[in-house]
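Data deposition worksheet. Section B asks for the primary sequence of the deposited chain exactly as it was used as input, without tags or linkers unless they were present during the calculation. Section C holds the resulting structure in token form. Section D is free text for depositor observations; keep each observation to a single sentence. Incomplete worksheets are returned to the depositor.
Section A, Depositor: J.P.
Section B:
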Amino acid sequence: MIGTIANERLASKFKSLGMENEDVDAVVRMLRERPRVAAGADITRGERSAGYSTVLLTGVACSYKRSESGTRQIYSFKYPGDFCDLYRCLLPKWSETLAVQALSECSIATILHSDIKHLLTQHPRLRLALWRAAMLEVSVLRQWLSNARQGSAVQRVANLLCEQLIRREAIGLGSPVLPLTQVDVADAASLSIVHVNRTIQALRAANVLSKTNHAIEVVDRKQLAKIARFKGRYLEGAGIHPEVAGSDCTCA
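Section C:
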């Protein structure tokens, strides 16, 4: 039985993708909750499809790949309601090389591909929802690649933080404290930990991030968006609108 808070997060996420209450209820009934995953453990390892896909219920995770030297490159962050491996349903014969790691303790659920296919015939809006979910992953990756080629380290980190604030608000997580470490930010922004630490300290000195909280806490969102020159339109295809989410990070 999926808990109330997890249910609320799922509903917020699925509705942002274009699903109605009856669609959400139908999907939730098909989910099977699994044992919790400890922080640092892999939720999926990129192996071929086992006939089901995994949905994050609570916590935060990331999709990543390790280089031969062991360094980690993060390609996206996952929040409640996000599929960890939607590609397994869409491309069951594709052997993906990305894994998904729990960055905090996470609760997860699985849904059989046969159940997804059945739901698609009964709930047409689910097709649009899955397409939007897939497009969000593509849009985020494309934006991160663009950020890596342009702008300073401060802009890249500020962009990353703006995006996480908006994505979390879209599912009802409005805290200004982001559940990411500086190592996570470095691996996502393709920067060294030393470079990210200097950038975080610069944002603290500019009173954009809290000076008293060791965690990453945003205290001036308008200035953060200004520093980032944040453009959030790439999120709109997935039904995420900063003005609806209550964000001060302005889409340009």
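Section D:
The beta strands are 32-33, 42-44, 52-58, 61-66, 72-78, 99-102, 107-112, 177-178, 216-217.
Residues 9 and 171 are 6 Å apart (CA to CA).
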